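FAQ: What does the model actually see?

It sees only this:
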Amino acid sequence: MSIRPIAVVVLIAFSLCYNACNPVPVSQAELLPQSSSDVDEIMLVMDDRDFEEGIIRDFINTSLLEDFPMLPQGEPRFNVHQVPPVDLMPLLRQASTIVYFADLSRSEGTAAVVQKQIVKAGVDGQNLPFFVRKNVWAKPQNVIYFYGDNQADLRAKLDKNREKLLSVIYDLEDKKAYNNAYVSGVNEGYSEEIKSKFGIDMDIPLSFRKVGLPEDSPIMWYREDQTEKVSNLLVTAVDYDKLPTRSLDKLSDQLHEKYGAIVQSETEGSRMSRDTVHFETQHLPLDIDGHKSNLSRGIWIMTKEFMGGPYINLVIDQPEKNRVLFLEGFIYAPSDKKRKLIRRVEQMLLNVEV
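And it is asked to produce this:
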């Protein structure tokens, strides 16, 4: 009788026992749960009295809860939730962005927690207005500790470091908006179509479909239809000799008007245009892969209809190809909130590779 099968069984049993008793080391980050908060949703950990009124409350109102730019109805920049440290339960710790605000002249509450973290992190609590710990209770996650020696110091640091703090918050929230846009996956066929026609890398989500246009149309149009809300993407390139101007901010407005003619309702003679009566288009110069660019935000309307919504477009100068790229995203969601939808298409545009 052969003993080989018995030996194999013993060897397998030994291997299982060895692996169980001596597990392969894994990093702490690998054991963390996935963060669970929605796009642009942040958790504030601070004393109740500071959330109700005072210097920190003023900052929350003017910076975190200010209106997101260029929406037809007001929506805050972030959705915020507040708890004192004692109420930060395990489930709440899975928020992707958590911000502590503390007045270090106190000895209890949030101040005591932040003081402990300053010592643990070994940071210069006197000169550094805030610091960030990553993936503390979940991943991806930013836990931000913002503090001042007293109320006057807090006011000065909040005023001086507003943009830096917002930049840190958006660093992660932008990634969440991008990932949310592609939760359905990437349509490789459409993405390759964009690359073949325009020579750029831009992923189109699987949830988007192509809108049929004449074969000689210079523009590609993709749209995502959800219940009572529609997200749209327009992509094209325009040669220099066909441009009415080389000013990128003016081009963003003029190309929006030009290509808005293909977006129509069922009413004859309708077309997409800009609402310049109630809203002034916002322009922001950018650098995209070393190319001068302009990002514009505005409100579109449909002529001869009571329709409209936010739009965002990107004009990228490509002198090496004697052309500009024109990318636009616009939202129609008459009975729904629009911030998250426009943030998704915003990140789709800003992550284009030219």
